[in-house]
């Protein structure tokens, strides 16, 4: 039976839903599956990035991971390194798409794949480890520290 996500992490999971929508749009960029122009696709990505993704990464890296480190009996270093590496890759793709118009659709498609991979990894690997390590009452204390996404305000 699948364990229910801790209430304190639900805002991050909600943000992940919007990231998956963005990932799908990125994977469809430049294909017959979308009618968006290159400019519209890039503007959509930058809008999502600036309003939500940057803040979401901050929530995970500056709020959630330090809390995990305080309570983890044995830090899952390789998992945390993988998450941070994926964040670095995502940031570099966004930067490359924003600053360099060379092969933009290919970069957007790759970014879409990476963004989806990151969400799945965090939901399946990272969050369960954090929920196991951090006592519930301390997870509840971070609930109000996460940003509200621009799509739903959650």
Question: What's the structural blueprint in terms of helices and strands?
Answer:
Layout (H helix, E strand, L loop, with lengths): L9 H19 L9 H34 L5 H23 L4 H30 L2 H7 L12
Helix pairs in contact: 1-2, 1-4, 2-3, 2-4, 3-4
Which regions are unreliable across 5 or more consecutive residues at pLDDT < 50?
A: none
The biggest sheet, with number of strands, parallel, antiparallel or mixed sense and barrel status, is: none
Q: Return the structural class.
A: mainly alpha
In helices, the fraction of residues equals: over 70%
Strand content: under 5%
Q: For the residues shown, what is the average pLDDT?
A: 92
Whole-angstrom Rg: 16 Å
Count of individual helical segments: 5
**Second rung of CATH, namely the architecture:** Up-down Bundle
Give the assembly state of these chains.
single chain
CATH topology, by name, is: Four Helix Bundle (Hemerythrin (Met), subunit A)
The count of β-strands is 0
CATH class: Mainly Alpha
């Amino acid at each position: 039976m699948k364990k229910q996500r801790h209430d304190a992490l639900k805002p991050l999971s909600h943000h992940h839903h919007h990231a998956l929508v963005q990932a799908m749009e990125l994977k469809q960029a430049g294909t017959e599956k979308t009618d968006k122009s290159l400019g519209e696709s890039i503007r959509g990505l930058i809008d999502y990035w600036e309003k939500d993704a940057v803040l979401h990464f901050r929530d995970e890296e500056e709020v959630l991971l330090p809390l995990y480190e305080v309570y983890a009996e044995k830090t899952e270093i390789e998992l945390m390194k993988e998450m941070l590496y994926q964040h670095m890759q995502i940031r570099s793709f966004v930067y490359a798409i924003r600053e360099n118009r060379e092969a933009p659709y290919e970069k957007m498609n790759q970014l879409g794949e990476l963004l989806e991979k990151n969400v799945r990894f965090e939901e399946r690997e990272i969050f369960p480890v954090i929920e196991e390590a951090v006592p519930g009452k301390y997870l509840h204390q971070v609930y109000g520290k996460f940003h509200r996404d621009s799509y739903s305000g959650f």
